[in-house]
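Review form for a predicted model. The reviewer records the input and the model, then writes brief findings.
Reviewer: anonymous (R2)
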Amino acid sequence: MATTVSTRFAAMFLLLAPGLAGCGNGQQQGAPPPPTVTVAKPVTRTIVDRDEYVGRFVAVDSVEVRSRVSGVLEAVHFQDGQIVNKGDLLFTIDKRQFQNSVDQARANLLLAKSNFTFTESDLTRGQQLLRDKTISEQVYDQRAQAKRNAEASVAANEAAVRQAELDLEYTDVRAPITGRIGDRRVSPGNLVTGGAASSVLGTIVSTDPIRFEFTFDEASFLRYERLTDSGNDVASRGFSAPIKLRLIDEPDFVHEGKMDFVDNVIDRSTGTIRGRAILANANGLFIPGMFARVQVPGSRPYEALLVPDAALGTEQVRKFVYVLDADNVVKQTYVTLGQVVDGLRVIKEGLTPDTRVVVNGLMRVRPGVKVNPETPGATPPAGPPPVKTN
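Model under review:
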């Protein structure tokens, strides 16, 4: 009986031996290797801080096209919304009554000139008669007065001719500026009114160049003024600081211009002051009233450290990065962020140029863990030689 039990225990031991051997080998393999992460030093670059504001485009010139004379609108010589050049014919008003006024004024001028010629000759004859004592001095003075009156009549009629010709010229309403015209407000056949209560026939706005207006707060204005005193002309009156701009459907600030005006008063109701920039608009992309965002230089150039946004972590309201010490142990470092420049984040405080920052593999590490660092573009280490099999 005892021999049978011993035999059974020996058989069970032989069956469990490979498993026990395997467990022993697993324990002998030890802890898993340290995780591999990608590290890089911060990029050093000279940058300028930029402030962002929202504003609108406004036309450099905007004109309401009106008639200077009253009459029936005869023709329209443009398509709604087209580009017109200064001097282009836009509207024509019925000319007939104005042509009649010109003809009448010219006839009156001829009559006045004829009367002047007669009174001038009459005065010349009176001079000889006065010397011969044939006429009295009173009669001579009357002839002299008649000549002066005739001369004044000629001048008045010449002015009347010029005015009549000017009114006739005003029947052709031409573009006062180059720009894009809106839709016509009056159709042919309608009576338009000239003078002080003249009818608006259309509007023209200039397109190239175009202005961009925005407002900034008093604190920013003071900062710009102090930068001006430091040698930077960001906020001086009449300065030309470069600006960058992007439209609402654009991811980057790709349009460039320059500042050309800062207002002379701060709005009491809002505590802001108005600034203005000017941009080229040859392709007509910008139109008055369009919204956009603008970047204005807000600091002097300085050396800054930049890291990829992917290297940043968030702990409540604070931002941090993982860095490595000399033993490749991960540490958590809190940083102060700046603006984004070409896809990299400016780090104002917390890093040095020689700090090794974890830029890839953040999910595999935590503070106090030792890692295997790799630099971007480095050749991976060679593995063990392959095992030859028969």
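Findings: Residues 13-28, 230-236, 378-390 have pLDDT under 50 and may be disordered.
Further findings: Helices lie at 2-29, 96-131, 137-170, 218-229.
Recommendation: see findings above.
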